[in-house]
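re the bet — no i am not wrong, look at it urself. input seq straight from the record:
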Amino acid sequence: MAITNNTDFSSGAILTAQQQNNFPRGIMAVSKATSTDATITTVEEQLSVTFTAVANRNYRVTYFEPEVTGTSGAYTNILIFLTSIAGTQLSGGYVYAPATNSYSTITVTAISTFTAGTVIIKGAASASSGTSKLGRIAAQPAFLMVEDIGTA
């Protein structure tokens, strides 16, 4: 992935529009969930965001779950998809439950460029066996966030 770096700025230099466009643009979309989902088995959508992508820019997608529990000896998969949970998987990670009621947190990230226009990102979860639980409260929400991190 090529990256267009900015130049060094010096006193008296003129800041151009192209240099301004090379800077990151920050948060493009964010979604939060504060309700616990204690019935995770097969791949199930948890969060969704929609934003307008610009061609030739890098985007970082971050999906965070504050509390993950699962059946002893099983894995809880946390996944990021493009468009739908049947779409292209951008990233994924998992949490292993060594014992019932063991708790973990997980953060999964992806860096990608997208075709210009409307982009939909989905955060999802599944259990390798048994049932997993994603615990959330208002003070500790799960979130799915897309950030523009600069030109590609």
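see?? The helical segments are 17-22. told u. also The first strand starts at residue 26 and ends at 33. so pay up
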